[in-house]
């Protein structure tokens, strides 16, 4: 299967391969980040909305939203209320100083080497053996943590 591209942005802006082992959100993130760092997306250039990107790539909106949210968190994108999402005029220091290729080679040799000190500490954390594992998925609330008795009491009080 050939990779799909978007039509609302430059033709080779976002490429995904559904058969690849890399998650789709990561492929979208990598494509957009590479376009920003390489200059194919200039500072202050508009980025397609997540709904449009999701529709054109035929993926879930959560997938595109996760990629865009990560880029926003890292400082590659900025949101202007009622205007849209744009490439940040000031790229993060990592993009300016380090090259993507060096980071990729370092992460293949030792995945923790490409992380910051804080990131390495977080990656080294092990889950507590006393706490049960819980699923972490978008759009699924933790129903076991919901205060059902309090809700029942308040609902019955309101109905009376």
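-> sequence recovered:
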């Amino acid at each position: 299967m050939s990779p799909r591209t978007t039509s609302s942005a430059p033709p080779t802006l976002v490429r995904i391969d559904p058969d690849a082992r890399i998650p789709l959100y990561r492929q979208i993130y990598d494509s957009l980040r590479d376009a920003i760092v390489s200059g194919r997306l200039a500072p202050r250039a508009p980025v397609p909305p997540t709904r449009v990107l999701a529709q054109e790539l035929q993926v879930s909106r959560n997938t595109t939203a996760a990629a865009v949210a990560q880029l926003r968190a890292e400082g590659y994108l900025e949101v202007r209320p009622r205007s849209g999402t744009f490439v940040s005029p000031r790229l993060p220091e990592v993009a300016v100083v380090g090259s993507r290729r060096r980071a990729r080679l370092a992460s293949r040799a030792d995945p923790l080497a490409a992380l910051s000190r804080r990131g390495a500490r977080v990656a080294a954390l092990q889950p507590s053996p006393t706490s049960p594992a819980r699923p972490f998925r978008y759009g699924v609330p933790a129903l076991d943590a919901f205060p059902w008795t309090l809700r029942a009491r308040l609902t019955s009080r309101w109905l009376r």
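The mean pLDDT is 78.
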